[in-house]
């Protein structure tokens, strides 16, 4: 996991958070949660990040407004895989509006365009570190773009470009 720009870590970002970020990426990349084909999925959506080559397919099972089950397959870099793994863990059992709100929080966190609700994000807050590496931001956000398209039932492939 190398930073593309080699910029210094944001001053003030707790070093423990940086360690946590790296540990989580490594752990989730090594054994991704919910990485499987979801049989009987209500919705299926493909996502592609041409910048890195990450590809994923997201599967969703809905129970009314609630995400009853979610899974993904694909080939991505460590950040993409870890992000998809942690995202599926985070939104399983949530309602569609809750998951869409989480999408917004996650985007503010990694794009740093607005204050992010880190409390709502929980463990995902560790992804704030990816904002230091602009080239990798799309790796982290691809699963979330794909999720939003799935929740909106857009039915066309998502591309980060
Ligand atoms: Zn990637």
Write a structural description:
The chain is of the alpha+beta class. The protein has one domain (13-155): Alpha-Beta Complex (Sufe protein. Chain: A). The chain has five helices and four strands, in the order αβββααααβ. The protein has helices at 15-30, 78-91, 96-111, 118-121, 134-151; strands at 43-49, 54-63, 66-75, 158-159. It has a four-stranded mixed beta sheet, with helices on one face. Helix 2 (78-91) runs parallel beside helix 5 (134-151). The longest helix has 18 residues, at 134-151. It is globular. The protein starts with 14 loop residues before the first helix and ends with a strand.
How would you sum up this structure in a few lines?
The protein is α+β, with helices and mostly antiparallel strands. The chain has 5 helices and 4 strands, in the order H-E-E-E-H-H-H-H-E.
- CATH architecture descriptor name: Alpha-Beta Complex
**How many separate structural domains?**
1
Q: Please give the share of residues in helix.
A: 40-55%
Low-confidence stretches: 1-7
Q: Give the spatial strand order of the biggest sheet.
A: 3-2-1-4
Overall radius of gyration: 15 Å
Strand % is 15-25%
The number of helical elements comes to: 5
For the terminal residues, how far apart are their CA atoms?
22 Å
Q: Report the bound ligands by name, code or SMILES.
A: zinc ion
Q: SSE string, helix = H, strand = E?
A: HEEEHHHHE
CATH topology: Sufe protein. Chain: A
Shape: globular
Major β-sheet annotation: 4 strands, mixed
Q: Could you tell me the mean pLDDT?
A: 89
CATH first level: Alpha Beta
* Protein structure class: alpha+beta
**Number of E-state strands:** 4
């Amino acid at each position: 996991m190398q930073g593309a720009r080699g910029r210094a870590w944001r001053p003030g970002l707790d070093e423990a958070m940086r360690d946590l970020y790296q540990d989580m990426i490594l752990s989730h990349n090594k054994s991704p949660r919910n990485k499987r084909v979801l049989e009987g999925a209500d919705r299926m959506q493909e996502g592609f990040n041409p910048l890195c080559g990450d590809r994923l397919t997201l599967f969703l099972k809905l129970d009314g407004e609630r995400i009853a089950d979610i899974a993904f397959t694909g080939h991505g870099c460590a950040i993409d895989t870890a992000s998809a793994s942690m995202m599926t863990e985070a939104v399983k059992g949530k309602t569609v509006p809750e998951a869409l709100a989480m999408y917004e929080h996650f985007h503010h966190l990694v794009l740093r365009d607005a204050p992010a609700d880190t409390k709502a994000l929980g463990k995902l807050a560790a992804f704030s570190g990816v904002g230091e590496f602009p080239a990798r931001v799309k790796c982290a956000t691809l699963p979330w773009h794909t999720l939003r398209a799935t929740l909106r039932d857009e039915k066309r492939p998502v591309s980060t470009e």
